[in-house]
Design goal:
With about 325 residues, the chain is mainly α. The chain contains 20 helices and no strands. It has helices spanning about 10-20, 30-35, 40-55, 60-65, 70-80, 85-95, 100-110, 115-130, 135-140, 145-155, 165-180, 185-195, 200-210, 215-225, 225-240, 240-255, 260-270, 275-285, 290-300, 300-310.
């Protein structure tokens, strides 16, 4: 459920020419740039990048970086990256920053995307940084968070829909026992959440709620108040309903004084082409304010206009030669 409103009758050649015009001179026509790149899919952006390079013998992202800076510039460059490469760079940044809020990025790329996407990220990580994602997690992160994160990024979950109800019942009981004992970092808890396929885990979570009265994420939050529990709750959300996780990322990035632009950018850019419509719905149901209004209230200028375009709410401009 992508929120991107794609322009009609565009071509990589025409877009490249219009972008070149927008990037000529001392400044940059930012509205023109947003109107083009804010309304193109990942495949279309990749073709634009290729054609622009062939036409003008320079990298489009390098050109954009030389002309545009700040939050808008960072968001624009991330948007132009291949999704796996983008998530790879976000993961590297998260590990360097540390802190539970940043480390949720690792959970998101591990649990809120198809197994093939995680595999692409792991390959890209080795190519870009000359080491594995697992090596950097072991280097930067201490136990017990290290154990959880390593399990999540090392897993290649079965992508089918088969469910074993007996296993779901047994593992719901095991998870409940660990939560009640406040022993969330037990090996079998991490193994269940880091190994089972999405449909199997959803069945486990459903049985948990039926048998014990509360959703598993609520019990995790109520019984334990530490960084491990926070990451475990994010794991459940990303597996069961990723819109909850990214809705909360947006909320926490705009609540209070100041704005966490990096988190806000991440949530919108990484999910705009996946499930942003679900995230917008969840955000309104939980916060009684639209996600669009939240962005309007906490951002400004070209950065705001770009995010609004990715949310599917900006003006769709058409540029011709």
């Amino acid at each position: 459920m992508s929120s991107i409103k794609v322009a009609e009758f565009s071509s990589p050649m025409q877009d490249s020419e219009n972008l070149r015009k927008a990037l000529e001179g001392w400044g940059a026509d930012r509205k023109a740039i947003i109107s083009i790149l804010g309304h193109r899919t990942a495949d279309q952006r990749a073709k634009i990048f290729q054609v622009y390079g062939e036409l003008y013998k320079e990298s489009l992202t390098n050109r954009l970086q030389s002309k545009i800076s700040g939050d808008f510039g960072r968001a624009l460059i991330l948007w132009m990256l291949d999704p796996a490469e983008r998530d790879t760079k976000l993961a590297k940044e998260a590990l360097r920053k540390k802190g539970v809020r940043s480390l949720q990025v690792i959970i998101e790329i591990s649990c809120a995307s198809p197994p093939c996407h995680l595999l692409a990220i792991r390959k890209a990580y080795c190519s870009l940084f000359r080491c594995s994602l697992e090596e950097d997690i072991a280097l930067y992160i201490a136990k017990p968070l290290r154990k959880l994160l390593l399990s999540m990024v090392s897993s290649f979950r079965y992508d089918g829909e088969e469910v074993d109800e007996k296993i779901a019942k047994s593992e719901a009981d095991q998870l409940h026992d660990a939560i009640e004992r406040q022993q969330l970092d037990q090996d079998h808890v991490i193994w269940i959440l880091g190994t089972r396929n999405q449909c199997q885990l959803k069945a486990t979570f459903n049985i948990y709620k039926q048998d014990y009265g509360n959703p598993i994420d609520k019990d995790i939050k109520d019984r334990s108040n530490n960084d491990f529990a926070t990451l475990l709750q994010a794991t459940v959300w990303c597996i069961e309903s990723p819109e909850k996780q990214f809705s909360e990322v947006v909320r926490s990035s705009v609540v209070g004084l100041g704005t966490d632009e990096d988190s806000l950018t991440r949530a919108i850019l990484t999910r705009a082409e996946i499930d942003m419509e679900k995230i917008k719905k969840d955000y309104y149901e939980v916060n009684k304010i639209s996600l669009l209004d939240a962005v309007f209230d906490d951002t400004s200028g070209d950065y705001k206009d770009f995010l609004v375009a990715l949310l599917g709410c900006g003006n769709l401009w058409n540029f011709v030669n």
